Amino acid sequence: MKTIEKNYKKTLIYMATVYFLIMGTVGTVNFIMDSYWAFDHENRFNQMQSGSNERQQKTNYVYFHKFDYDAILLGSSRTTLIDQNDFEGIKTFNYAVSMMLPKEFNDYIEFAKKQNGRDFKYIILALDFFATNKLKKAENPKPIIDNTTSFLYRYKLLFSIDALKNSAANIRRFITGKKYRRSYNRHNVASTDILDEKTARRIIESRKHWEEKYKYDDHYIDTLKELQKNNPNSKFIVFTTPVSSFLFNLMLNEGHLKDYERWLRELVMTFGKVTNFMTENSVTTDYTKNYVDTNHFYPRIGKLIAHKVLGINDPKIPKDFGDVLTKENIDDYINSINNRYIEGLAHENLGIKKKSKNN
């Protein structure tokens, strides 16, 4: 009997030892890699990090790091590739995440304001035309924020399997040196691998539709007006994100010119000034060099955007990149769009023949 009891105790000790060794290893790896940005240390292993759950990661960053910023930037994955440091002279935090819609902006702004301890001097909105689609559903920020602020959350993360999966992905980045579609450093700056032009063309021109289903959201602008109401002490800097001309023309050819014009007019009437990059211009038409896919531009393009909206004199900005729209010129601008596109202007790479005024 004593022998059985002794063996039983040995088995328990062995199992407990194995368990604590495994959990200790998981916790150590997760702490070193810190894939959910709940701590502020950096080392040679965690310099390139996957943005697999950007909403949670960036919310953790806001909460667990020193947070003292003059401006906040919101937008979708297109905007994640803009270096927040390119807004020179304005200390900016890039809170953009993949597929973020305007309905999410308010909660994240309010959360960030609370951590900042004051209103932001500037709120920078990077707006996507696809977000006007009523059929797209926004993610609820509350569960994300509740996670971050829950009791002992960041210490629980140390033993999280999801965190371990992210750690493994980041170890792969460390070993291969590849950034893949998007990797972050420890200071919320994203970068991506550069494609050769042949690969970029194949990826971009393989797209067949702008949107499978689309309906303009009549309440889209109301959401943005609510942001203004909730932030009376902040100056809004607003711009539209530039998609490749290939995708832009898909949008036009699918019959959304009037929706596009309505979008621009509503933005200008609401904010007074909007910089529109979503046009055919020197950057968007040279998409094999400037885009990783139909709508994600490289960070160097993001620098041009930041400089343009701030009015920084940068000789690298093409003259046709970024149209400054105001209440005074929006009517003429809409008329010029109609004159250019209403008769069916289509990008020649789509194989669609342009219509002639004589036909």
Give the amount of beta strand, in percent.
Answer: 5-15%
Radius of gyration: 24 Å
The top level CATH class name of one domain:
Alpha Beta
CATH topology name of one domain, in short, is Rossmann fold
Q: What is the H/E order?
A: HEHEHEHEHHHEEHHEHHEHHHEH
Could you tell me the mean pLDDT? 91
Q: What structural class results from the helix and strand content?
A: alpha/beta
> How helical, in percent, are the residues?
40-55%
Uncertain runs with pLDDT below 50, 5 residues or more?
Answer: 346-359
Largest sheet: 6 strands, mixed
Using DSSP, what is the number of strands?
9
Shape: elongated
Tally of helical runs? 15
The rounded distance between the terminal residues' Cα atoms is: 101 Å
Any guess at the CATH architecture of one domain? Answer: 3-Layer(aba) Sandwich
Strand order of the largest sheet: 3-2-4-7-8-9
